[in-house]
Specification:
The complex is a heterodimer of chains A (about 220) and B (about 210). With about 220 residues, chain A is mostly helical. Chain A is about 80% helix and about 0% strand. Chain A contains 7 helices and 2 strands. In chain A, strands 1-2 form a two-stranded antiparallel ribbon. By secondary structure, chain B is mostly helical. In chain B, strand 1 and strand 2 form a beta hairpin. Chain B is flat and about 70 Å long. The mean pLDDT of chain B is about 85. Classes of the chains: A mainly alpha (about 220), B mainly alpha (about 210). Chains A and B meet through helix 2, helix 5 and helix 7 of A and helix 1, helix 4 and helix 6 of B.
């Protein structure tokens, strides 16, 4: 009876429950596996950002604000690093929030420099790459869109000051395209790996199921 | 017994590498489509005569043909092997570096040329697919190619002062170059690190 009820169930459209295993858990495991990438990317941002600020800042206020941002990022990242090393669970909102702060911090420093093309634009790359291999496609798209919109808005003022022109326009288009390209490629890879892992889990479960059935059948024959 | 187990382990590693390339090469294909799109945008906006357009678009069309072939093979479930992927990825670097060296206008050469950003998706995609050693080599090739192009070909990094034989180093340009090189290395490193994480996770599932 229960078997027939089970069989009459509609197919699971999301595909989250196959072979009795809830693949929703894979999502959180993905974040757990990708979190060190985000943390390392943030350390790169902190070290390179601090070096860049101390090396060559055009104004004292800009340097002060940049150093404060970088130090705040370092403190937050230290907390995350320690939690990961201690293998303690980190609430999802902290992980998402920290990534949002990364994007906001890079955009903030870009806005402070008020220069086009900005030398700090490249820091979007490791940050977006890291979150694209950690978060789902929808969330990666949201972060990428936020970075893209932020960058476009920040670029308007310096481009206006420069008087525009085809060279500047081309630079902006190329920057925007690559800002999308890096997280897109990262997330394509994330999806590929996820599907490969799910297939491996399914294969394992089928093998286990067959082995269990074989053992039960053998015991039945013996009896 | 031990020899057999070593052989088995080597075979598993080889199979894993082959599978990584089999499944992952589509990421490289996608990265190349973005580079092609950026190149088309660059040529379309910055060229002013039909001759300039023709000269600019030919290498991009060539790269498109390569990518049609490779992406088509992948979609037909006949993906390219490691050597073919490595050669096509080197072609990507050659194209990007050539655009940076030649440029589309006087202001768009060397360090001022913003096409350097095209290195990032290409390096990331390569790092996702290829083993760590190859990724390190590939990233280093990209970094050296970019540094040499900016320093030797364009020489914008130097700011010669009149009457002084030794050129002074322009700190702003040097800072920009170093930042870009650091981030190129970071992108390659992060992609390769994640590649290793994924391989470990798959192995954990298998065991």
């Amino acid at each position: 009876m229960s078997e027939s009820t089970e069989r009459s169930k509609p197919p699971d459209r999301k595909g989250t429950t196959r072979h009795g295993l809830n693949f929703d858990a894979v999502g959180n495991e993905d974040i757990k596996a990708g979190l060190p990438v985000i943390i390392y990317a943030r350390w790169i941002l902190v070290i390179a950002g601090l070096g860049l600020t101390l090396w060559n800042s055009t104004s004292f206020v800009e340097a002060q604000v940049s150093v404060l941002i970088v130090l705040a990022l370092a403190v937050g990242n230290f907390f995350l690093q320690v939690e990961v090393n201690r293998k303690r669970a980190i609430p999802l909102w902290i992980v998402y929030g920290a990534s949002a702060i990364d994007i906001a911090a890079i955009s903030g420093v870009l806005a402070l420099t008020n220069h086009f093309p900005p030398s700090t634009y490249v820091f979007y790359m490791p940050a977006l790459l890291a979150l694209s291999v950690t978060f789902s496609t929808g969330n990666t798209a949201k972060f990428t869109a936020a970075a893209l919109i932020g960058y476009a808005l920040i670029s308007i003022a310096p481009i206006n000051d420069m008087g525009g022109g085809s060279v500047v326009l081309t630079s902006l288009i190329v920057h925007a395209l690559i800002l999308v390209a890096v997280p897109f490629c990262g997330n394509v890879y994330w999806r590929l790996e996820r599907s490969r892992r799910v297939s491996e889990i399914e294969t394992d479960l089928v093998e286990q199921h067959l082995t269990d059935n074989f053992e039960v059948a053998s015991l039945g024959d013996d009896a | 017994m031990s020899t057999q187990s070593i052989n088995t382990s080597t075979e598993i590693t080889k199979r894993e590498a082959a599978e990584d390339i089999f499944y992952g090469q589509v990421v490289i294909n996608w990265a190349r489509w973005f580079v092609i799109a950026a190149g088309v945008g660059l040529v379309m906006i910055l060229t002013e005569t039909p001759t300039q357009l023709a000269i600019g678009i030919v290498p991009i069309v060539g790269l498109m043909v390569v990518n049609f072939y490779l992406h088509g093979r992948r979609l037909a479930q006949q993906p390219a092997n490691r050597n073919l992927i490595a050669i096509s990825s080197i072609l990507d670097l050659v194209l990007i570096t050539s655009v940076i060296a030649v440029g589309g206008a006087v202001a768009e050469v060397g360090l001022s040329n913003q096409f350097y950003v095209a290195y990032f998706p290409v390096i990331a995609a390569f790092g996702f697919v290829m083993p760590r050693k190859l990724t390190v080599v590939y990233t280093l090739i990209a970094m050296v190619a970019y540094a040499v192009t900016t320093v030797v070909v364009n020489a914008q990094i130097y700011d010669p002062k009149p009457g002084i034989d030794v050129p002074a180093v322009d700190l702003i340009n040097l800072e920009a170059l170093i930042t870009r090189l650091v981030v190129m290395a970071a992108v390659g490193g992060l992609a390769s690190y994640f590649w290793r994480v994924q391989r470990e996770r798959r192995n954990a599932v298998g065991s």
